[in-house]
Amino acid sequence: GENVEQHPSTLSVQEGDSAVIKCTYSDSASNYFPWYKQELGKRPQLIIDIRSNVGEKKDQRIAVTLNKTAKHFSLHITETQPEDSAVYFCAASRDTGGFKTIFGAGTRLFVKA
Amino acid sequence: SAVISQKPSRDICQRGTSLTIQCQVDSQVTMMFWYRQQPGQSLTLIATANQGSEATYESGFVIDKFPISRPNLTFSTLTVSNMSPEDSSIYLCSVGGVNGYTFGSGTRLTVV
Question: Any idea of the CA torsion for B50, B27, B35, A21, to the nearest 10 degrees?
Fold first, then answer.
């Protein structure tokens, strides 16, 4: 069946460094790729997304890239800060042949001050 | 984006009993989704609730165990029936879909 693989499962960086999280999807019909941030004890929140007709999108310190041919997409966080520490989930969605979203397993990011 | 009120926020329940979780949205939405998140794990879709029709359940989840109601376009409930310790988890409702999800605050369920 369809799945989304997310790596790494844990990432520790020094404050100010960059962090990169990568996801690979299998469903070629996927056309929407959101990223969620979940702080401890809180709900997941959408932080950035990208659609299949776009290769890159940036919002301040975060950016997402998509390689549709290779079926992978990545989250890039620059100038990391301690408040970036959280679990990040990627997801791949499609809205053809029935709406479906599959989440990655999550990446626990630690930003050390 | 939509604002979702979910309750209860947490509960401790005896095995064999049932718990009903409620979600109220501040706007009308076609689809509402119910997710389960076990500790340290990802989000697993339980079912999609559409107003005016039966909920659609994902593989591994059945209506007898997780009955869902969707009486109108702003409200839904999920019941966890005949609970066992394996049902201990966080349950989240959400709305949205093709433009990303907004999640409720979650219900942390512990079955003892």
Answer: 130
